[in-house]
Write a structure and sequence with these properties.
Elements lengths: L3 H8 L13 H12 L10 E6 L2 H10 L11 E8 L5 H18 L3 E2 L8 H6 L6 E10 L14 H4 L11
Antiparallel strand pairs: 1-2, 2-4, 3-4
Helix pairs in contact: 1-4, 2-4
Length: 170
């Protein structure tokens, strides 16, 4: 039996070029909800997500992210902020980002992780309180072209062991 979640993990690729096409409200909500529903250490949930869909906001984000100017052409983006005092924040928000990326992919929406905390200018521009750091921005959109690729990964047995380091997993 096929595992749809594994297929999403197996096939998801970073997408940096998007169609000029809006995302339906229910798809955007489902992606944000995937982040919201992600497990959190001690259930602290040390995050806040800002969904940006207005073109001016997307252009502003694109201009503010050295490694992600393509955000300006996305249909939406999620600013992922973390409570800077939480010891769980980076790991929990990272898990939430991956949940959003996989949920988006399941709806045919491409995305990517852009940036890494602290992104103070974005925090200020989008009204987050000082107690938060912006960890990343996740642009969202339908891929401009069909995304087909082969992931470049180390051999499985080079990074996975059974019981002890170096023992191949059957």
């Amino acid at each position: 039996m096929a595992n749809q979640i594994f297929e999403a993990v197996r096939t998801v690729m970073a997408v940096r070029e998007y169609q000029d096409k809006e995302l339906p409200d229910d798809v955007v909500r489902r992606i944000a909800e995937a982040g919201h529903l992600t497990a959190s250490g001690a259930n602290v949930q040390p995050w806040h997500f800002i969904v940006v869909r207005e073109r001016d906001g997307l252009r502003k984000l694109g201009s503010m992210m050295r490694t992600g100017p393509y955000i300006a052409s996305a249909a939406a983006a999620v600013i992922v902020a973390i409570e800077e005092e939480s010891k769980y924040a980076i790991s929990d928000a990272s898990r939430a980002i991956q949940s959003m990326i996989i949920a988006a992919w399941g709806d045919g929406v491409g995305s990517n992780w852009v940036g890494f905390a602290p992104l103070d200018a974005i925090r200020k521009e989008f009204g987050l309180p000082d107690a938060y750091d912006v960890l990343a921005v996740v642009p969202l959109g339908y891929p401009k072209r069909k995304v087909v690729g082969k992931k470049k990964r180390k051999p499985f047995n080079q990074v996975v062991s059974a019981e002890r380091f170096g023992t191949p997993l059957a």
